Task: structure prediction
Amino acid sequence: MGRARFAMIGCGVLALIFVESALTENYRYRRTARDDAKAAAILLTRSDLPSSSAVKGGRVTPDETPTTSKDACNGHVAKESDLIITGDAKSKFVDPSGVLTIESSVSVYQTAAMVLADWSRQRPLLTANCLRQVLARSATPTRLVSFRRLRSLPGYANDNYVIDVAYHLAGKPSVEFLFAVTILRRGRTEALISTQLEKVVSTAPMLALRIQTRAIAALAPRLSAS
Result:
């Protein structure tokens, strides 16, 4: 899944990419100017997001750090070293209060077969059980409240998840965040869109999905045209 990992990137909490292999893995990065530009052209931009939102941001450095034992499920991490990334880009938007974070990551692989191979290794283990294992290693005490896999979007190879996570800080009330995560794949390219929203009102789940739906509607046509 490239650096478009299934991750709670905004809180730095988890990455769920697992199959049996060594406990340190990484993709081989052979980035080209052409494929970096291709990845960047697909990313979310500020104009894709609601004008009423206070989020600010733009392009940021993509995550190309290795997967380690901290990301392991049942003692394993994903084999990545046989997969080549030729384009990589990321964008991130955060509101001043830290309540809302929207991110997009796009990875271009050397071949379409590598996209499918990577995902086939990971998808069966993207589960609540594996997520609990990773959260248990977090420096901040963290509890999985709920994990749902939603139906796929028509017209794309894709997966959709809604995850509810609670953080427990010493001497303070727990803080609950919702994560809407969508992974889209087409040809050599894979894109991840995530919306992270603090659950401060009862309508937060609906609002998070509404923001995520708008982001998908903006990014997906660019992925199709790439």
The longest helix spans residues 204-225. Helices lie at 33-42, 112-122, 128-135, 204-225. Residues 3-22 have pLDDT under 50 and may be disordered.
